[in-house]
Amino acid sequence: MSKYKIAVLDDYQEVAKSFADWTTITEYADVKVFTDHLHTEDEVVARLMPFDIICVMRERTPLPAGLLMRLPNLKLIVSTGAKNHSIDVAAAEKLKIEVQNTGYLGHGALELTWALLMAIAKHIPQENANFRAGGWQHLVGNDLKGKTLGILGLGNLGAQVAAVAKVFEMDVIAWSENLSREKAAANGARYVSKKTLFEESDYLSVHMVLSDRSKGIVGAADLALMKPTAYLINTSRGPLVDEQALIESLQKNKIAGAALDVFDKEPVDQDHPFRMLKNVLATPHIGFVTQDTYQLFFNDSVKILREWLPEHVKAAN
C-alpha cells in the first residue's frame, strides 16, 4: 500500500509532534515537519512538490492561486484556525484540492494585548534589564486608571479589551467605519470620530480584520494626531498600520512608543528597525501561540487526517 506524504509547515518551536499523537496516521502517511520558514514562491514550490497533503500554521505560509497551480500532487490542505485568508480557497476548489480547518481559541490575543500594554506602560522590559544589571528603580511608570484607551475596531476582541479596561477604570473610546454610538455604548465605550480617537488616546489598541479596505487604516496623518506621550498597541495584523510611517514616528519620538506582535513581513528581517528602536516592545506574533491553542490546533489536525486518509488511501489503491 502506497502512503501519502504530509508536510507540516512552519513549526517554529518544533512542537507539533509533542502536542498530538501523529503515530495514529503513520499506517497511511509519512509525516515531515519543517521548522524553518521559506519566503519565496519558488522555494515553497520546490519543497512542497512531492507532498500530497500540507498542514499549515495560520497565515505563516500563504497559498495563493499561482502557487497552488504549481503543486499537482496536492490533494488536501489542513489549516489551523477557523479561517485562513492567505489560502485561495476558490482556486483550491477549482484545482480539486480540499481545504479543512481546525478549531480555534480566541483568548490568547486578548491576554497578549494587555500583557504588552501593561509592560510598555510600566517599562517592565527596561526595569527587568536594569535589575539584572545590578540596578534598582530606573524609570517612572505610567498609570492606567483615569487614562484613555482608544480601540480601533470594536468587534468581538475589541469589546473584550474594552471590558478589561473598565476593570482598570480607564475611559474607553472607540471608532471604526461601521461602528455606531449604540454598539459602542453597549460595549462600555464612547463612540468618537477617527480623528478624536487618535487625538485623545493615551493608549491606542488596534483590533480590526485585515482586508483591502482596512489595509493601512493607520497612516502617517493618523499617527501625527497622537499625543507625544501616547502608545500604539497592535496585536491584530501588521499591514493595518503603515509600517514606514510608524517607524518614522518612533524614530522622531512623536509618540512615546509602540507594542507590537504583528508585522508586514514575518518573520521580521534581522536588521529591521523594530529590532533596534528603544521605544518599541515587540514579540514575534505569539498572540495565538499558547499551550491550549496548540493542543487544539494539532489534535484537530491529526483528527482531520485520521478521518480523511483511510478512505482516500483505499480509493487510491
Describe this structure in words.
- By secondary structure, the protein is of the alpha/beta class.
- It has 2 domains: 4-104 and 291-316, 3-Layer(aba) Sandwich (Rossmann fold), CATH 3.40.50; 107-282, 3-Layer(aba) Sandwich (Rossmann fold).
- The protein is built from 12 helices and 12 strands.
- The chain has helices at 16-19, 41-48, 65-68, 89-94, 107-121, 124-132, 156-167, 181-186, 194-200, 220-225, 243-251, 291-316, and strands spanning 4-8, 29-33, 53-56, 76-79, 98-101, 148-152, 171-175, 190-191, 203-206, 231-234, 257-260, 280-282.
- The strands form 2 sheets. Strands 8-7-6-9-10-11-12 form a 7-stranded parallel beta sheet, sandwiched between helices. It has a 5-stranded parallel beta sheet with strand order 2-1-3-4-5.
- The longest helix has 26 residues, at 291-316.
Summarize the structure.
With 317 residues, this protein is of the alpha/beta class. It has twelve helices and twelve strands. Helix 5 crosses helix 7.
Q: Would you spell out the secondary-structure blueprint of this structure?
A:
Elements: E1 4-8, H1 16-19, E2 29-33, H2 41-48, E3 53-56, H3 65-68, E4 76-79, H4 89-94, E5 98-101, H5 107-121, H6 124-132, E6 148-152, H7 156-167, E7 171-175, H8 181-186, E8 190-191, H9 194-200, E9 203-206, H10 220-225, E10 231-234, H11 243-251, E11 257-260, E12 280-282, H12 291-316
Helix pairs in contact: 5-7
